[in-house]
Amino acid sequence: GIQVEQSPPDLILQEGANSTLRCNFSDSVNNLQWFHQNPWGQLINLFYIPSGTKQNGRLSATTVATERYSLLYISSSQTTDSGVYFCAVEKKAPNSGYALNFGKGTSLLVTP
Amino acid sequence: GAGVSQTPSNKVTEKGKYVELRCDPISGHTALYWYRQSLGQGPEFLIYFQGTGAADDSGLPNDRFFAVRPEGSVSTLKIQRTERGDSAVYLCASSPQPGGASGNTIYFGEGSWLTVV
């Protein structure tokens, strides 16, 4: 199956700092999404971004599909940004179904 | 509520017992997914329903796992002869349409935490 690798695995930031999270994937994809899992386990969709760049407030994401990677930028981090950030992809292939393959995530802690 | 609802939120069962986990998707969502998440890992795909039918069950680990969605809304994940290795969070998600597309956001429930002792 398609491999999804995220880095760094863990990150500690002081409030107000910026960060970049990376997602590498091993095959062409139809779909790439970034999710945030809060400390209570709730998964929230942040971006649908199989290619290009999108911004939503302090968050932005860029996917370079030809080079098989995506980046999530967090600016002016806040303590509420803490949690685990997952990248998930859907392989581009006939009969691949609609299964999203998740990476292992980046665990982010933002301290006051 | 308006979100994906899962019950029970927590379940502790003995090895060998049968377990049912329920998912109530967002009203009108035709696509429903089950995932399993172990500690320190990302969610792992189990099965996807389009309407009443299981369109992709390639993620079910073995024949002890089965899921149904008889009326195209609520789904039940059934686990027979539970094993300690089945302990995980079982996540349900729904989306208006299947597959990824701009605006076709996938919504996850809060999960059912299963512990097999």
Write the layout of secondary structure elements.
The complex is a heterodimer of chains A (112) and B (117).
Chain A: E1 4-7, E2 10-14, E3 19-25, E4 29-37, E5 43-48, E6 52-56, E7 59-64, E8 69-74, E9 83-91, E10 101-102, E11 106-111
Parallel strand pairs in A: 2-11
Antiparallel strand pairs in A: 1-3, 3-8, 4-5, 4-9, 6-7, 7-8, 9-10, 9-11
Chain B: E1 5-7, E2 10-13, E3 19-24, E4 31-37, E5 44-50, E6 53-56, E7 65-68, E8 75-79, E9 88-95, E10 107-108, E11 112-116
Parallel strand pairs in B: 2-11
Antiparallel strand pairs in B: 1-3, 3-8, 4-5, 4-9, 5-6, 7-8, 9-10, 9-11
Helicity range of the residues of chain B?
A: under 10%
User: Main sheet of chain B?
Assistant: 7 strands, mixed
Radius of gyration of chain A, CA atoms, in whole angstroms: 14 Å
For the residues shown, what is the average pLDDT of chain A?
92
Structural class of chain A: mainly beta
Total beta-strand segments of chain B: 11
How many domains of chain A? The number is: 1
Label the structural class of chain B: mainly beta
Strand content of chain A: over 45%
Task: Detail the poorly predicted runs of chain A.
Answer: none
What is CATH's topology name of chain A? Immunoglobulin-like
Compute the number of helices of chain B.
Answer: 0
Show the largest interface. A-B, 26 and 29 residues
In total, the number of domains of chain B comes to: 1
What's the level 1 CATH class of chain A? Answer: Mainly Beta
Alpha-carbon Rg of chain B, integer? 13 Å
Average pLDDT metric of chain B: 92
How many DSSP-defined strands of chain A? 11
Order of helices and strands of chain A: EEEEEEEEEEE
> Briefly, what CATH class of chain B?
Mainly Beta
Question: Could you write a compact summary of the structure shown?
Answer:
By secondary structure, chain A is mainly beta.
Description:
The complex is a heterodimer of chains A (112) and B (117). Chain A is mainly β and 112 residues long. In chain A, 0% of the residues lie in helices and 58% in strands. Chain A has no helices and 11 strands. Chain A has strands at residues 4-7, 10-14, 19-25, 29-37, 43-48, 52-56, 59-64, 69-74, 83-91, 101-102, 106-111. In chain A, strands 2, 4, 5, 9, 10 and 11 form a 6-stranded mixed β-sheet that branches. In chain A, strands 1-3-8-7-6 form a 5-stranded antiparallel β-sheet, with no helix packed on it. In chain A, β4 (29-37) and β5 (43-48) form a beta hairpin. Chain B is mainly β and 117 residues long. Chain B has a single domain (5-97), classed as Immunoglobulin-like (Sandwich). Chain B has no helices and 11 strands. In chain B, strands 2, 4, 5, 6, 9, 10 and 11 form a 7-stranded mixed β-sheet that branches. Chain B has a 4-stranded antiparallel β-sheet with strand order 1-3-8-7, with no helix packed on it. Chain B starts with a strand and ends with a strand. Chain A binds chain B through residues 4, 30-33, 35, 40-45, 48, 50, 86, 88, 90, 97-105, and chain B through 31, 33, 40-45, 48, 55-56, 58-59, 89, 91, 93, 98-108, 110-111.
